[in-house]
Amino acid sequence: YNKVEDVNVTFEDQQKINKFARNTNRMTELKNEILEKRKTLQNLQDASDDLMLFDDNSLFIPYQIGDVFINHSQDETQEMLESAKETLEQEVQDLEKQVSAIQQVLSDLKVQLYAKFGNNINLEADES
């Protein structure tokens, strides 16, 4: 049985709890974005690998730009795939940095909130 202590929640405490919730939501969004970009990266890598199987450089490969497909040589298409991969890899790194920064904020808030509320507050994510 858990003894629930009567702890006064101040305005400042409520602000910290709200900040914790906002940052937790933001981190979830960022992690989903990272997963999407990694899927796209894998698709680009697969396309790049498939392209290397062609040994006829006179073939023109349709490459989608926006809503339009434009034909490019095999070499041009390979370069475009590499460029797109580099851009995505950089975006993933930037998102991972944001996640790390948020994890630090959450960690600091956890320390403060658990110090005050102990077992009366649950800041652990439901892994469901």
Automatic annotation (TrEMBL):
Write down the InterPro entries for this protein, in alphabetical order.
PFD_beta-like, PFDN4, Prefoldin
What is the name of the gene encoding this protein? PFDN4
**What keyword terms does UniProt attach to this protein?**
Chaperone, Coiled coil
Q: How does it assemble?
A: Heterohexamer of two PFD-alpha type and four PFD-beta type subunits. Interacts with URI1; the interaction is phosphorylation-dependent and occurs in a growth-dependent manner.
Check the record and name the Gene3D superfamilies matching this protein: 1.10.287.370
Organism listed in the record: Astatotilapia calliptera (Eastern happy)
- Kindly name one Pfam family recorded for this protein: Prefoldin_2
List, alphabetically, the SUPFAM superfamilies matched. Answer: Prefoldin
Question: What does this protein do, in the record's words?
Answer: Binds specifically to cytosolic chaperonin (c-CPN) and transfers target proteins to it. Binds to nascent polypeptide chain and promotes folding in an environment in which there are many competing pathways for nonnative proteins.
GO cellular component assignments = cytoplasm; prefoldin complex
Q: What CDD domains does the annotation carry? A: Prefoldin_4
Q: Which residues cross the membrane?
A: none
Name of the protein:
Prefoldin subunit 4
Q: Could you mention a single GO BP entry for this protein?
A: protein folding
Which domain of life, per UniProt? Eukaryota
Regarding protein family, the annotation reads:
Belongs to the prefoldin subunit beta family.
Annotated coiled-coil positions are: 74-112
What are this entry's molecular-function GO terms?
Answer: unfolded protein binding
